[in-house]
Design goal:
With about 150 residues, the chain is mainly alpha-helical. It has four helices and two strands, in the order αααββα. The mean pLDDT is about 75.
């Protein structure tokens, strides 16, 4: 069993890519966390998600930019460039039709850096359903047990 990346997307779903050895994240999210940990300038007009990886994070970024425009915290030229970038990100994310993930992570833990992440061993995607063959085998066993009890 290969450990999965424990990053939780804005939509609530788990990344699910293979994690790097001895790290809780995949290559992409490890690099993303390293960049996010680097010091930034003292003034940030808009607090955007670190990554525009799903429709939920794009929606959150859009909300932040619109609020910054309304409160005059960002100039319109810069806002225009950011909104254009969000338009491109949105067209790239069209294959995902959910903003809130239907199979979101149930439980999280907070690491030493204060980041929320999925529990170790949590699986990405919906819980696996039993196959038709498994269901039929269960039913046959149940009927065999009933027949043995009646005998």
């Amino acid at each position: 069993m290969v450990p999965e990346c424990r990053h939780i997307k804005t939509s609530g779903g788990k990344c699910g890519s293979p994690a790097l050895r001895v790290k809780p994240y995949c290559y992409y999210h490890s690099r993303l966390k390293e960049r996010a940990a680097q010091p930034r300038g003292p003034y940030l007009a808009v607090e955007l998600p670190a990554s525009l990886e799903d429709r939920g994070s794009i929606q959150l970024a859009l909300s932040e930019i619109v609020t910054a425009i309304a409160e005059n915290r960002i100039d319109t030229k810069r806002a225009g460039v950011l909104l254009y970038a969000l338009q491109i990100a949105s067209s790239n994310a069209k294959h995902q039709n959910e903003i809130v993930c239907a199979d979101s992570v149930d439980e999280t833990v907070v690491n030493e850096q204060g980041e929320e992440m999925a529990l170790e061993g949590a699986k990405a995607g919906p819980p696996e359903e039993e196959s038709l063959a498994d269901l039929l085998i269960k039913e046959v066993r149940r009927r065999n047990e009933e027949n043995q009890q009646l005998s």
